[in-house]
Design a protein that fits this description.
Strands 1-2-4-3-5-6-7-8 form an eight-stranded mixed beta sheet, with helices on both faces. It has seven helices and eight strands, in the order βββαβαβαβαβαβαα. By secondary structure, it is an alpha/beta fold. Keywords: Hydrolase.
Amino acid sequence: MATAIPTPISQKITLYPAEDRFSGPRPAVLVLPGGGFRELPPHEGEGYARWLSGLGIHAFVLSYRLLPDRFPAPLEDARAALAHIRDGDHGLDIGRVGVIGSSAGGQLAGLLMTGQVLSIEEGVADPPRPDFAILAYALADLDLLPPPVVENLLGDLLPIKDELSPAKHVDASVCPTFVWATAQDPPGLPNALEWTRALAAAAVPVELHVYPAGSHGIGLADGVEYGGEPHKFIAREPHTASWTTACAAWLRLEGVLAD
């Protein structure tokens, strides 16, 4: 059962605790839906959260600030949410804390992973970072997007484009990462490959899966609708949907899940 957590007005977190059959300290994941900073698709929020809950993971879905708010607003929200999971008054026994991000939410996840502090920020030091990450067709480098898209997304922040490209800031301190995309996803595939290249070059443990079918934004790829109405990217691709099985195996390999 989802529970609303009181938060500052800049953010909204919805908690999906691990299913009742799991006991003791459990891992937790901050869920960052995609949507190009214009929307937060429920299938990449609630959908992921229900899957994680069934694995025995506490899932915290964040409604971060969207356009017309620009950076650092969504990054501030993501940092605050990550800190809340570790230190907040939610009453859960939390173990390791990870992040899952899709598309634009994957950009946010990447900025958390790298501990990136933007030159337009003041008074930020030692931001919270996740212990593991799951990146679904996640934005790695803004240079891999068409220039008009980048200009529309960043506006007057275009001069700090490289700062907002998380794969440019990967080093050996970044957490182990699971990356996936599909071969039919023009923005997702090159970004997934760039994530994998950057992480491997820094000797960060990384696992990459590329599936043959499915468009950008497909989420769990199980065709299930959330939020009361269908989303344009919802589709059922059974083979692509097996990414969740592969990811659960990876979580066990990394010691995040013991059962």
